[in-house]
Amino acid sequence: MKILGYESSCDETGVAVVCTEQGLLAHGLHSQIAMHRAYGGVVPELASRDHIRRVLPLTEQVLTEAGLSLDDIDAVAYTAGPGLNGALLVGASFACSLAWAKGLPTLPVHHLEGHLLSPLLAEPAPEFPFVALLVSGGHTQIMQVDGVGQYTLLGETLDDAAGEAFDKSAKLLGLAYPGGPALSKLAEKGDVTRIQLPRPMLYSGDFDFSFSGLKTAVLTALRKMEKEQNTITDQDRADLAAATQTAIVDVLAIKSLKALKQSGLKRLVVAGGVGANCLLRTHLVTEASKMGATVYFPPIDLCTDNGAMIAFAAAMRVKHGIQTVDHNASFKVQPRWDLEAVAI
Ligand code: KG4
Ligand code: ZN
Question: Which CATH number fits domain 127-297: 3.40.50.10680, 3.40.250.10, 3.20.20.70, 3.30.420.40?
């Protein structure tokens, strides 16, 4: 079965074709980063309009790349949430209109399930069961994953997500949107030993996180430097970037490895945009190997939002008999939607 999948929950338009037997056949992505940069963050209305502009040319591009025509497609999948309402509606209405015109069934997909299963697109793919650290711009969760659709939440952030902590701290350091990759790059030049930032909830005894205090700590450190030195140099900013990145990575690593230990499992999967962070990757691999555990990541270009993970999650749900294809042309999107709602 060949599934055409759409992702449009935020600022990336993603389209892909996945075959339930052969895997990923082709995928295409348009990132709106350059467009939103001038505003310092995603402008929802602009995001929706740009998805409209991109979705048809990307569909043609992906089908050509896969050597397929619409007549070869068996079902159309789309991100039904969570995400920006208008942006979700573009992908969902396009996918459902296309399906309706071609008499095809549709498959609504939970965006986080897409991220969660995306490491299965890498080689070697992890086997079930595993513990997953899901770290994106909007979510930070630790889950136990026993199979497709079998998700148990072990812990999550009580306020800001890890990606949000990167982005907000980066903004305070004067870095362009999106802050995560920019802060990580600046941190390479920084002295990580100079500034100590708090690691909230590290010893809370559970697997929950709290990152909202970090941006305040970064702001306080900046003000202190300004007061003491009358100026803030590029080196100051780099040192603070290094301290911020290490604080976030430390908390994520310590909590996810504790969860892994408690589960008795030996496989940790990292997914979501922050999973592209080099320090998080190397630190987790080193620490996990000390426990005899292996860490799995999605292919680096599939860490941030993309259509491949959506088409793939749909294919996995169909393959495992969890989701039946829907011939009803009506649809709805859910800007807020817990992953556990799609668990079996
Ligand atoms: O998963 P994603 O593409 O979108 C959401 O579903 O939210 O994640 C985007 C987040 C942003 O906060 C971005 O700053 C962060 O992932 N990110 C990074 C890196 N690349 C992306 N954070 C730290 N280091 C990176 N290399
Ligand atoms: Zn995402």
Answer: 3.30.420.40
